[in-house]
Amino acid sequence: MKRILNYSIVLFVLTIILLLIIPLPPAFVDVAIIINMSLSMMILVITMTIREPLELSIFPSLLLITTLFRLGINVSTTRNILSNSGSSGQIIQAFGDFILRGNVVVGIVIYLIIVLMQFIVITKGAERVSEVAARFTLDAMPGKQMAIDADLNSGLINEQEAKARREKIQREADFYGSMDGATKIVKGDSVMSLITTGINFIGGCIIGMVQGGSTLNDVLNTYSIATVGDGLVGQIPSLLISTATGMIVTRAVAEGSLNEDISKQFMAQPTAIMISGIVIAVLTVIPGMPVIQLLIISSGLIGGGYYLSRRIQTEPALATSGGGTLRGFTPPEGEAGELGEGESEEPKQVSEEEFYKDVNNVYTLLTVEAIEMELGYSLIPLVDETAGGHLINRIIIFRRQYAQDMGFVIPSIRLRDSSVLNTNQYCIKIKGEEVARGEILIDYFLALEPENLEKEIDGIETIEPAYGIPSRWIKPDDRELAEIYGYTVIDPLSVLVTHLSEIVKQHAHELITRQEVMHLVENIKKTSAELVDEAFPNYISYSMFQKILTSLLKEGVPIKDLETIIETVLESMSDTNVPVRDVDGLIENIRIALKRTITRMYCEDGSMKVLTMDAELERTMVGSLVKGDRGFYLALNPDVLQSLINQITLQLKKFNGLSQSPVILTSQVMRVHFYRLIEQFYPNVRVLSFNEISNNVQIQSIGSLTLENRERRGA
């Protein structure tokens, strides 16, 4: 029984196909018609109660099945009408009698109105909406992927949530692409209905007059009832399915079910309701108008609008962000106030002169914060929790996510207001020096331009600060329109947090201090005390270990697996072939030990896309290694270096549109030297060696770096 249920849809489709071949008695045709109407009504109700189209992602396939079912019913009814003197069941007879009421012309006109309304209005509109939705959904995919990456980088979501959102985006693209084609089925169904009706009527008249010997009047009465009844029986479910199609493709910006959205949004506009009531009341001055009906409807609209207006006024007003100062902000005159994360105690109000009378307080001016963010006056509400600011919470989430991913806890971030900055500006400092600056408008949204921009939206042109993407600051009212045009819309707080998180990631290697290294070692000592006691300080000092961790973080390698890192250091130190102070050699061995982690970071669906170097270029670089006071370094010919930089610039464009970071693959001998050569030009390009990639990964070369000046050197 369970197996039969699993294949119920297959059996249903096979049954539909049999309807095209096997003649059905009128009683069975009635059952099929009732099932068809029930399915159509059920689908329409579902499309109005779902909250988003993907809740009914099977709709394109369902549309094809129901259309095929109606086609099977039409074939059966046509066969019965033409072979049974216009008789094809009670439902068709009842519909024909009820609609015609003795007048053939009226019945045909009503039938044509229903068919043409479906074909010209509903089906045509649904088809156009599907085409536009499919195109804009596909165009918006890169921007949505980038928004997911930004949320993941800022710690708002974890990897599982990011994966689920990426899958949802892919499903949306597949769904709207399928709907674009499925609407053609609805359009064809309307045309086929007209053709079937014409065949029934003309064929019935020919059969009745030629084969049955009936008079023209009898033939028209008999076959007109059957034809109109059959057409309506097939067209009403088709109309319901067409309406459901239009309903589901227009739910892109819905927040709830159709009933919830309509009720919520209509009741939020009491003024419009009252104005409509007044306009209806004015219509009573026109002679011949039904005054009583107009006054009843007008009074209902005005009364309902007035009631909704009073209810909105009595509800508690929502808190809005406004100007203000940071919580606990007590700046001395001429100095910027400050707020550390999580501080909540109200400081004592003192003047600048009183504060600095104590010489010990002067020493506070000498402190250099690891990370600082200075904010203009207009941005203070983003920090002030009493005004609804969530910046501190977002920073806490980012720190937690970064610690889980990279194994390093970033220091506290000092937030300050600044009178030096413009009101909408902010700047980020690392160890007291500014490294980045940006500007955001808290009353606007940032719309990131898609790659294939078809239509621009009005807004203030700018550049997204974290990734340098051309963008526009748009008004909140234009958010939905921007998303339809393919823009990726981000709120101001997310823009700020994303920029901060990217800057912290780029400079994380500067933030890992000796004290933090000792803290990390003490933390791993809780689970691997023997390993730590053996390694420190007998085989490795804390200063050398700090240098190792700094190098790993600089190239984006997580240091979360400290146990493996320390074990690799011990194994390398015990190898007599490795010099004691060869830190580069230690780091390369550690990277090989962490190959699964490194591979995961740059692998997508079991494949890693890379740039490679040809053998002659690598031999040339090996021959250019020069030993200096601090080890080996590359001393390439300037022409070769310039050619190499130009090639990399061109080849990196191949990574545009890919979710993977750019990767250049070299031998283990050249990896660290090549990375140091190009890091000043391309700090975000990762250089990996073949030994750092897991064996189960397929390496796909999408470009190659060559020795382009070989002919010139040979000449």
Fold topology:
Layout: H1 2-6, H2 8-19, H3 26-49, H4 59-83, H5 90-100, H6 104-153, H7 159-211, H8 216-249, H9 258-267, H10 270-282, H11 291-314, E1 338-340, H12 352-357, H13 359-362, E2 371-375, H14 391-406, E3 413-417, E4 425-430, E5 433-439, E6 445-448, E7 460-463, E8 470-474, H15 479-484, E9 488-490, H16 492-506, H17 508-511, H18 514-525, H19 529-535, H20 542-554, H21 562-574, H22 583-593, H23 595-602, E10 607-613, H24 615-623, E11 625-628, E12 631-634, H25 638-651, E13 663-666, H26 668-678, E14 686-689, E15 698-705, H27 710-714
Parallel strand pairs: 2-3, 10-15, 13-14
Antiparallel strand pairs: 1-3, 2-4, 4-5, 6-8, 6-9, 7-8, 11-12
Could you give a short description of this structure?
With about 725 residues, this protein is α+β, with helices and mostly antiparallel strands.
Keywords:
five-stranded mixed sheet, elongated, alpha+beta, disordered C terminus, 715 residues, 15 strands, single chain
What does this structure look like?
This protein is α+β, with helices and mostly antiparallel strands and 715 residues long. 58% of the residues lie in helices and 10% in strands. The chain is built from 27 helices and 15 strands. The strands form 5 sheets. The protein has a 5-stranded mixed beta sheet, covered by helices on one side. Strands 7-8-6-9 form a 4-stranded antiparallel beta sheet. The protein has a two-stranded parallel ribbon with strand order 10-15. Strand 7 (460-463) and strand 8 form a beta hairpin. It is elongated and about 115 Å long. The termini are far apart.
